Amino acid sequence: GAVVSQHPSWVICKSGTSVKIECRSLDFQATTMFWYRQFPKQSLMLMATSNEGSKATYEQGVEKDKFLINHASLTLSTLTVTSAHPEDSSFYICSASVFGTDTQYFGPGTRLTVL
Amino acid sequence: GQQVMQIPQYQHVQEGEDFTTYCNSSTTLSNIQWYKQRPGGHPVFLIQLVKSGEVKKQKRLTFQFGEAKKNSSLHITATQTTDVGTYFCVSQKLVFGQGTRLTINP
Predict the structure, then answer these.
(1) A103 → closest Cβ in B1, B41, B48
(2) CA distance linking residue A38 with residue A52, whole number of Å
(3) Which one, A24, A92, A103, B61, has least CB within 10 Å?
(4) CA nearest neighbour of A72 among A18, A111, A33
């Protein structure tokens, strides 16, 4: 139980294009989803927290207009990297949690490479 | 903002040796979680500690939460090759420690 999927698992795009990453909770309803980025051999850094049906809360230093987050249902959240640049290349991981619990269930991650 | 420091950054041990990673927060924690990330994988929840001085065990893993709720540790007894990975502590504000990468010589 508590499986989270991400799609795509990897993506290569040209600079200036936008990329959408999907995060789905497969066997549970996730009241809250989190988006992280992880650089090679480094820790995870929280980008934003999203609750179903409301606007995402972004961490300090994360541009909300660049990283668009939509949490339209209890099983789906999307992260859109707009006008991607090479410095946006990273490993993006989502996680989901159930209301009333602190446990996060992580997706397998999406590796984004911007050329 | 809250900072979570974790040491050591790397640890290489012989199979069968013990391993410990330590986590310190700049502020008092309401709880702390531990996750394990295998190479190429995603973090997997191990445990959450809530009470001051709490000690929890999972087979060969022992987790401790400090009396002041500002530090925590994870100790693995008699490591096995399946223990390889990076261990992260995470605060209630979702601040991750830098992680300790454990490698094991079989």
Answers:
(1) B48
(2) 24
(3) A103
(4) A33
Which 3 state secondary structure label does DSSP give A14?
coil
| Rounded average pLDDT per 10-residue block, chain B, 106 residues | 93 97 96 94 94 97 97 98 96 93 95
Q: Is B50 on the interface with A (CB under 8 A)?
A: no
- Dist. CA B50–CA B36, nearest whole Å: 19
- Do the Cβ atoms of B42 and A44 come within 8 Å? no
| pLDDT band (50, 70, 90) for residue A1 | low
Beta strands in chain A (DSSP E): 4-7, 10-13, 19-25, 32-38, 44-51, 57-58, 67-73, 76-81, 90-97, 105-106, 110-114
In one letter, which amino acid is A38?
Answer: Q
CA distance to partner chain B, nearest, from residue A83 (Å): 26
CB-based contact (8 Å) between B96 and chain A?
yes
Residue of B nearest to A110 (CA): B42
Closest Cα in chain B to A35: B94
Angle at A13 between CA A11 and CA A16, to 5 degrees: 140
**Residue B92: which of B61, B70, B73 has the closest Cα?**
B70
Tell me if chain B has a CB within 8 Å of the CB of A1. no
Which token pair is B53?
């001085």
